[in-house]
Amino acid sequence: MNFNFINLQPYSNPQYFIWLLIALIPMVIGLYNGRRFKTYEAIFSLVFLFLIFDGTHWQQGINLILYLIYEFIVTFAYAHYRTKKGSPNKTWIFYIAVILAILPLTAVKVLTVMPVGTVPFVVGFLGISYITFKNVQVIMETRDGAIKKIEPGTYARFLLFFPTISSGPIDRYRRFKKDFDKVPSREDYITDLQYAVRYLFQGFLYKFILGWFFGTYWLPKISQAALIVGNGVGGLKLSWWVLAYMYCYSMYLFFDFAGYSLFAVSISYFMGIHTPMNFNKPFISKNIKDFWNRWHMTLSFWFRDYIYMRFTFFAMKKKLFKNRIRLSQVSYFLLFLIMGFW
């Protein structure tokens, strides 16, 4: 048997959903009857991770394993330092831990812009950004004292939670652990199943119907019309067709990504994990701030909580800026600069 043909990328084809829903049945039965089969869940997750990273993606799988070993060393070394009795909680050690945690992701971003052929070994893999965000969050909350103890098994499940591994949503360790350690009552789990089925079919509608309609059916036609009109006036200029292309592409991005996120949330609910939603009707936003709080919310809130707010508190504590408006401006500039580099 040629195992190269069983590679299954998340939520990309019917075969993936068929195998996924079949594999979920024992977990659904267990949770419905008040039991969480943690060993089965671990095996289940590892099998689907293998299916994601096998075949032509085997190098990414090796990179993922090496990355996890590295991040475990960094995180647990810092956690040991931070939680030991009488720890001085030095800021510079915290900074080193964060820098080391983001080093692999930084290397990936730098190496991807280097000329082809100059990089003998690619360190990236599917989902490295979102796993890094999770890891940095744990280090920061360990520094704050919000996380008193990191359980290795739960931490590994948190980082490798396969429904969200490739593109989020980005969960928080304490929230994930609370769900994982608790077995929902039958009434609560029936409600979870209702949401899971709803989000699953909504995801199909978004990604495979509306996303296809805007991205595959309409977008090429509008693009061609915009080029024809542009060529008729001496080059591509602002026109109704260009405006239509902008909106059509935006709708395609939304329905494709929101559909993926709904699949991730749906599978999480089947597993008794309440992964947060990623989108909340962004196109009805009243202003850019409102849009920011509705589009890819888990990413926006992550950058808000761990970049913007922390820099703002640091600057206020050190009295770097006397004017609060200037402080806000610098904080926003730093926030969007880091997001731009990412």
Automatic annotation (TrEMBL):
It comes from Candidatus Lactobacillus pullistercoris. InterPro entries: Ac/AlaTfrase_AlgI/DltB, DltB, MB_O-acyltransferase, MBOAT_fam. The chain crosses the membrane at residues 16-33, 40-58, 64-81, 93-111, 117-133, 199-219, 225-246, 253-275, 295-313. Coiled coil: none annotated. One of its GO terms (cellular component) is plasma membrane. One of its GO terms (molecular function) is acyltransferase activity. Pfam families: MBOAT. Belongs to the membrane-bound acyltransferase family. It is a multi-pass membrane protein. It comes from the Bacteria. Keywords: Acyltransferase, Cell membrane, Membrane, Transferase, Transmembrane, Transmembrane helix. The gene is dltB. This is D-alanyl-lipoteichoic acid biosynthesis protein DltB.
